[in-house]
């Protein structure tokens, strides 16, 4: 009893010290970036990371069973690949619908609304009679619901995490999307006996659990509305859901975001840092997605892999994304702190220099992957070079998202939604034409061409590093 009392007194003392330190910072004109306790922030970030997992999981639980679905629905491989493309097109454009509203009116309400559509789509796929047209429509609805969380989640990270730790935090958030290619193929084994509806049942169960956690554990975090979160001080971590959060702070430090509308996107698309960064990540993602889509058919046709072996092989791609993401986030934050302490100081473009490694890794991985498939080398080499390509892609993505979040003060979700749109349009096109390119050019020259797109990326990277600071300065005037 005495130890419990002393522990309680210690907690009260620590709370008083923290409260006094915040009071002193306020008197000095300073304020902590986020007043939400660290453990609660960690819980919020964990929940939104799980939410960010739903969209990529929906895509990657599906890709390994494309040959099975083609037989079940009695359609060609190209027609069935169209269901991948329609999902990616939805994943490209629907975040534009969500993002500017999230930067203006709040995050929480859009989490609640959008994920309802995701759950509904999975229910309907399970119960609607087998029909290829219905599958196209419901895959589009599925992407509408799941696509919001990636852009909303980055916005939540920016709300809660100060810049010196942001790269690592964005990398951790991206573990959700990166886990899709790891766990998705494993869960797709539920369809190995021919029951193609099981993967969608799994998506419904996981999505339902994530939805409940967002409802009761994730508060509104948009800084323009709730500031640094001091309003949540001393309150229960379990909250009652509500669809509207009124503005409760009046502080000029929390920049008013632009009103949602087409004009916002038009202005940002013309803004070179957003446009060029989005183009580089789009080209990179298209190349990797082309590899990912062709991966299953190559292993099945050239190496006689079973459905189970194909699904497990996707662990290689997923593992590369996780490792690349974690390494990139930690490296770019360390680089940030080093530049911040230098005489010249830090500017957001300093992070971009580190992307060079990712582009080179992707270039080498894609070209070597294509030629190893062409000559039917040992499957271990296919794994090695696809792994190298994945490392390069996710390395660039973490830095790209961090840079975009810092480029537009007060509205991080909107530029990320634009980048997401270009990425997924490029991926949709790549998934639709990759088989044709492989047939016309052969695997070697096809992936050599894709790999050399990274030369364009490196040129655009140099442009951003040289002129990015000037472009940002002109934009804010």
| β-strand number | 0
* Straight-line distance between termini: 62 Å
Based on helices, strands and strand pairing, what is the structural class?
A: mainly alpha
How large a portion of the residues is in β-strands, by DSSP E?
A: under 5%
Q: Which architecture does the CATH hierarchy give at level 2?
A: Up-down Bundle
Alpha plus pi helix count: 18
Strand count, sense and barrel status of the largest sheet are:
none
**Which blocks of ≥5 consecutive residues have pLDDT under 50?**
1-30
Q: Identify the CATH homologous superfamily.
A: MFS general substrate transporter like domains
**What value does the Rg take, in angstroms?**
23 Å
According to CATH, what is the class? Mainly Alpha
Order of helices and strands: HHHHHHHHHHHHHHHHHH
In round numbers, the mean pLDDT is: 80
How many domains? The number is 1
Protein name: Dityrosine transporter 1
Question: Can you offer a commentary on this structure?
Answer:
This is Dityrosine transporter 1. It comes from [Candida] jaroonii. The protein is mainly alpha-helical and 477 residues long. It has one domain: Growth Hormone, Chain: A (Up-down Bundle), CATH 1.20.1250. It is 77% helix and 0% strand. The chain has 18 helices and no strands. The longest helix is centred in the C-terminal third of the chain and has 64 residues, at 413-476.
